[in-house]
Design brief:
Blueprint: H1 9-19, H2 24-31, H3 41-60, H4 70-81, H5 83-94, H6 109-129, H7 152-160
Helix pairs in contact: 1-3, 2-3, 3-4
């Protein structure tokens, strides 16, 4: 499913757990006409596939504080809101609860700089693991004071105007 370049067999063996994680309920939520997101099915499926890669990255680098794109973070928030499913999925994938710290990058200039560096590292690691991937959405990090004024519609526009082939 995912095009991956992981040389370590034990790490590669983890991948199917993430690829096969059932997140259809999240897609339903993100695409529902009454939901705040109102994403297309294509965008939701793509975002969920990127979120699974982000989760996989967290399993490979548990010591790193990884920063998702805004879109991946939106999927993460919807997943977390289904508390039972999120707790069970975390236990299955990581053997522990994966915490989400939503204040990274919001506590001043130094914090924002560190946050953006963590985001760049996250993007680099994703590209190393999944070299066949195209640009992951808009390259806008979640929870950064420099992006707090970015509207959802501009993010949607950035996604819909990209030339992705699926």
């Amino acid at each position: 499913m995912f095009g991956i370049s992981v040389n370590n067999e034990s790490k590669r063996a983890l991948l199917p757990k993430f690829e096969n994680l059932d997140l259809e309920s999240i897609i339903v939520k993100l695409t529902h006409p009454k939901d705040i997101h109102k994403w297309s099915r294509e965008k939701a499926e793509y975002a969920v596939s990127q979120y699974k890669k982000f989760l996989f990255l967290n399993a490979l680098y548990p010591e790193q504080e990884l920063v998702p794109t805004i879109e991946i973070d939106n999927v993460w928030h919807v997943h977390i809101l289904d508390t039972e499913k999120y707790r069970n999925d975390c236990q299955y994938l990581f053997g522990r609860f994966l915490d989400h710290y939503p204040y990274s990058g919001l506590k001043g200039q130094q914090d924002e700089k560190e946050h953006l560096n963590k985001f760049k590292l996250s993007q680099t690691l994703l590209q190393e693991l999944f070299p066949s991937d195209d640009v992951t959405f808009s390259k806008i990090p979640a929870h950064s004071s420099s992006t707090s004024s970015a509207s959802f519609s501009s993010v949607t526009l950035a996604y819909s105007s990209s030339n992705r082939s699926s």
